[in-house]
Specification:
The complex is a heterodimer of chains A (about 850) and B (about 60). By secondary structure, chain A is α+β, with helices and mostly antiparallel strands. Chain A has 28 helices and 28 strands. In chain A, helix 25 (about 725-730) links the parallel strand 26 and strand 27 (about 735). The longest helix of chain A has about 35 residues, at about 165-200. Chain A is elongated and about 115 Å long. Chain B is mostly helical. Classes of the chains: A alpha+beta (about 850), B mainly alpha (about 60).
Chain lengths: ~850, ~60
Amino acid sequence: MSRDEADTCFHCGEPNPSAATFQQLFDGQMRRFCCAGCEAVASTILAAGMGDFYRKRQRPSLRPDDLVPAVLASLEQYDAPALADASIGGSTTTDLLIDGMTCAACAWLAERSLRRVPGVKSVSVQYATGRAEVIWRQGATPLSTLLGSLRKVGLDARPADSARDADGERRRARRELLEWLVAGLAMMQVMMYSIPVYLAPPGDISPEFDQLMRWASLVLTLPVILYSSRRFFANAWRDLRHGQVGMDVPVALALALTFTASAIATVQGQGHIYFDSITMFVFLLLSARYLEHRARRRAARAMERLAPALPPLVEKLTGWPEQEAAKRIPGTQLLAGDIVRIPAGGIIPADATVLAGNGSVDESLLTGESRPIPRGVGDVLLGGSLNLGSPLVARVDRTGDASTLAQLAQLARRALATKPPASRLASNLAAWFSVSVLGLASLTLLLWWPTSPDAAFRHAVAVLVVTCPCALALALPAAWAAASGRLSQWGLLTVTPHALDALQGITDVVLDKTGTLTESRLTLNAAVALGTTAAARCTALAAAMETGSVHPLADALRRHQLQQDGHTAQSERALTPDASATHLSGQGIEAIIEGQRLRLGSRHFVEALSGPLPADQRQALIGMGASPTDSVVWLGAAQGWLAAMSFGMTLRPDAVRMVQALDHTGIAIHLLSGDDEAVVQSVAAMANIRNARGNALPDDKRAFVAALQSSGRRVLMVGDGCNDAPVLAQADAAIAMSLDRDGADMARAQADLLLVSGELMRIPQALSLAAAARAVMRQNLGWALAYNLCSVPLAMAGLIHPWIAALGMSASSLLVVANAARLLEFTPLVREHHATTATTHLATDSPA
Amino acid sequence: MEALYLLIPLSVIAVFGIGWVLWRAVNGGQFDDLDAPGQAILMDDDRPVQPPEREPPGI
């Protein structure tokens, strides 16, 4: 082991405080830990004989929450009967969502830990989706023990809300797979019987063997018709009952008629059979459908992982203010008038009014305002926002449908209802196609009937077979499947079935907030010492004061401190506040470190402790906070001012390149944000976006997009957060970003695509992929139409031999699939321009 | 050539046999997760259990 590792926590990889004495023996060496939490987790893992985890893991683990018994006790709330699933046959299947898995070794650790719990029968952990399926006896072990066993090894788990749904989802996936496999198997074997007939010279195969093979083909095609393709029949029937004609109608028609004709030919022992064409056609259709659905299921699972908008459990204070005792109840049981306590870092469960406490909240999910907003007694809290400061006691005002969150959802539903319909190209074609095929077949029957009823029937069947809807039916799904496969390789998951259609012909891209362009975290840009204390020491002091805080600035300070630790003296790190720090809402923090009373926060707040800022220091501060995106925070002691620190936003590395790529293709870019106007303009200037607007409310954004649409533009909306749900629904196409875990699943529910990789360059690339997919669909449709135009007259004239019809049917399907497969390798040509030289930093990185 | 009277029906039965095996495999969950089992094999504890946990110096 290298020497560096001795200085960092063996479990989480963060630096160890020099005073820390947490250690464990592992592999013959004393390993040191940064905190009691990490030590406890490691000792649980080692004591359980799972030390292999540390040998095999590829990345350090996450630092666990405190292992105080209260946290474990809180898990017992999950044992409440209201939250338990119905058990079947004594054992229950529960899906758990596990957070904190950083590599495959964590999945192994989770599986081993769950297996050790008595009463657990089987466990399967999927690292990719972060899910665990546990089969266990609920009577023997409470759910809290399962969650607790994971918590003890540093993994945070909660039951998936939609366990039953997931079960149905799995059954559907299995059924689709099986339908596809059956069709494939039958296709291969039927082809084995058909090839000799095609290849052998006439008369080489004696009639009785030929007849035997026809019967064998019939027997093998039966499951394909009755099992694999029943969905086409069901959908076609549903369409017809509703008076519509979708693509399934001609497919079902062709399958039914071709199969019937072939079956009659088999029984009569004369006429051509088309079993090989039927099985191959069904197999290809199902392949496209299976691939497309698999991509969509992956997207759905990725969305489910995102944190819920509201907390599952809330602390209800029954006897407040006389008693402090809290009772944990499920968030859904909360009523207006209830008094709740919201812990620091907790999500606010409903719209409420503060009764006690002072803190600040992050409402960025609801309003788009990215800065913390101070909230004190009497202020209104919005359900779904995040409490950043100290704990708050609040009275619930509105829950359920009346809450702000629910109203946003309603707004989104309304917008969705007025959304311009997606292109109906495929279904229009299908209707036209079915009608004309049926008409032509009837015409053939009528024209030939006087000559010979037998020939009339034969030629009519040939018309039906040769006008195979295969190319038509496959043209679009094959292209969709290939394109969504390519998109998911890029980290763009397609959520709605027609996401690619939606991306067609986009003329405007609207970015919904500055956070889409900037890193989600603040960075410490500069620290200027105002007194005799060195700037590095000041930032260390500030970081120590913010210990345990979830405020964005605290996070920035901590990360800065981690970077500094490489070249800082040991003594700088051992700083801890003597007493717990006091948060003052909207002003700052006060703490005592090494006997020194310190204040960190707004200038006014520090002035109250340190006196007025000395005039000679003002010179050093010129340029600080000059950009509207910067926030300046001051640090002072009773003896005098210590430092000023400026925090700023950084543009995401590929933001400028994305803007250039879009500009290049002639797509207009708009930035429409709920943030402060000055901040929005400043970010827009950095990213070279000309059209920018700030202070936009959710309804403003929706109106803006609607106005663009009414002037004939097609709008792609890129956003995240609950407040974006209405506008995402209004836009012609929507991409939701999942940059962090603080997600709003509601916004994602309105999106057509989900960008999980966080690479903005994928957006222009997806647009050009959509254009390429459109081209492939056009080629496929063009081929299908040309083929039919040539073959139908010949078939009507009785000039097409049945086996040529069968071959033509199969060959056109294959051609269409092969053409679509080109999309799997699609690489967009995005011109780089002078993108590499563009600077991505908003503010200069002056060293501290 | 009379063997074909046996072989063709046999091939049909074989296909149904394979279909049944696939049905068992799919409903047994063997196709539910195509990624994790491949990684799980790397996580097998294949170190000898008995010798005391000791690594040569310098690692």
